[in-house]
Amino acid sequence: MKKFRPQPGFVVQAYRFALDPNAAQEHALRSHCGAARAAYNWAVGWVEASWWQRRAEESYGIAEEQLTQWRPWSLPSLRKAFNEGKHTDPRFAAWWEENSKEAYSTGLANAAAAFDNYAKSKQGKRRGRKMGAPRFKSKRKARLSCRFTTGTIRVEAGGRHVTLPRLGTIRVHEPTVKLLDRVRAGTARILSATVRHERGRWFVSFQAEVERDLDRVARPDASVGIDLGVKTLAVMADSTGEIRTVPNPNHYDRARKQLRRASRTVSRRQRPDRRTGQKPSKRWEKANAARNKVHHRVADLREDALHKLTTAVAAEYGTVVIEDLNVAGMLRNRRLARRIADAGFGEIRRHLDYKTRQRHATRTIVADRWYPSSKTCSGCGAVKAKLPLHIRTYECDACHLVIDRDDNAALNLAALAAAVVTGTGVAGDQDTAPAVSKPRGADQKTRATRTRRKASAGRAGGATLPHQRQTETRDRTQAEALLLW
Ligand SMILES: [Zn+2]
Questions:
Q1: How many of the other CB atoms lie within 10 Å of CB of 74?
Q2: Mode of pairing for the β-strands spanning 154-155 and 168-172
Q3: What is the mean pLDDT of the segment spanning 162-186?
Q4: DSSP β-bridge partners for residue 395
């Protein structure tokens, strides 16, 4: 699908509200999301049927050009085939009318996108990890979600209800005034709405085209480098040399402790087991609900802290520099996964990118992944060959500067801004952001001194390819670096 390109002055923005559906509405929400999943699975099966047909023909020795054609997976062709078959298909005939057609469109559009991604990945036209062929979504694992693009989608006048096609008017947990005011003033137009079930709650997210005046940043000439931490949320250094440490949100550690406790309680009670057909006990259900509630709070605290940090940073500085951390790679490391996911590195970067761009027309620069922010002296620019991870204070051999390790890294990132401000002036989309590469002739980041070969060999259950091990080690090095900062 084509990326939406708004006109200048307009941005596409999401407004998200927690829903408070009644029992009938909750049922309808589940039904719609289930319908989206069923349509997705139908599309995957329908397209793949032609693949199996081809396989069979190949086994009879039929020539390549005479094989059955792949069935087209564009959204219009999927929609056409689905609409022709839904009246008679035993999987849909009895109940397809119960849900909005948008539910089926959601599934078909997702399937079309999945096949597109698979094809592009196979042809080498897609960046990132290799995509497999789309697979069926399981009823138990699939995230419940459904998107509405047409029909009655609006926020109600009282500011406490929203209306969605077929689902009707649903109460929300929080006032919708921010969006409502804009819609009334004619500065926002709702494009679509997505309902989603997350951690035991339903949410609706409105995508709206919003006319925004750009806000001037407080210090347009200043730049800031942000070094993301684990023990603290972040260390920031600006171009005047001022350093600020941003702590983790209040109550955060306490909430996490509560979460651990709640999880322990859940695990002691009789849980559902599919293999034996065991039903969960009432006590398990109660404990699980309690755990979900704490879970929600931890996630909310984190989200709130990230938004406050990124909003403030975007409103203050003309240029923001942030490190490119290999988040996906680090998340594969189990020991650190939680801490890194908690700190929400990917989120910080995403927030900064859109907030600087959409609200202030400033930019976020993403430093090269191997830029040695920790090993470079922020005073004279000398680069250490090695800086073991446990050393928390940077001492320069050339100019004898002594500085905290994190502060030094943040200062280096801030200094990077000056190096690129003169370069291409396009604001940093993830794709267009200039990656700043080794301005001081530096090499890679410190490799891990201790590598846990044993663990990785045991996990793979066989020989690891040399390049594979190298990447793993590299991911782990960064992850370890984060832990020790
Ligand atoms: Zn120095």
A1: 12
A2: unpaired
A3: 94
A4: 402
Amino acid 328: pLDDT: 58
Whole-number average pLDDT of the chain: 80
- Between CA 254 and CA 434 the distance in angstroms is 40
Dist. CA 213 → ligand 1 center (Å)? 43
d(C-alpha 450, C-alpha 390), whole Å: 12
Question: What is the distance in A from the centroid of ligand 1 to the CA of 389?
Answer: 19
- Note if 300 is an active site residue: no
Say whether 227 is catalytic. Answer: yes
Contact yes or no for 230/341 (Cβ under 8 A): no
* Residue 401 contacts residue 377 (beta carbons within 8 Å): yes
Instruction: Give the tokens for residue 376.
Output: 């470079």
CA 143 to chain centre: 14
Single-letter residue type at 292: N
Compute the distance between CA of residue 327 and CA of residue 470 in angstroms, rounded to an integer: 17
The model's pLDDT over 272-322, given as tens digits with 9 standing for 90+, comes to: 998 999 999 999 999 999 998 888 888 888 888 889 999 999 999 999 998
Query: Do the bridges between strand 243-246 and strand 234-238 make them parallel or antiparallel, or are there none, so unpaired?
Result: antiparallel
**Which residues fall within 8 angstroms of residue 150, CB to CB, at 6 or more apart?**
102, 165
Q: Are 73 and 47 in contact (CB under 8 A)?
A: yes
Alpha carbon of 434 to ligand 1 centroid (Å): 27
Q: Residue 287 is which amino acid?
A: A
461 CA → ligand 1 middle, Å:
46
Instruction: Name residue, tokens 């590299």.
Output: 474
Q: How far is ligand 1, taken at its centre, from the CA of residue 164, in Å? A: 61
Catalytic entry in 48, 102, 227, 316: 227
Q: What is the pLDDT of residues 97-112, one digit of tens each?
A: 899 999 999 999 999 9
**Mean pLDDT to the nearest integer, 330-340:** 59
pLDDT number for residue 84: 92
Q: Is residue 323 flagged as an active site residue?
A: yes
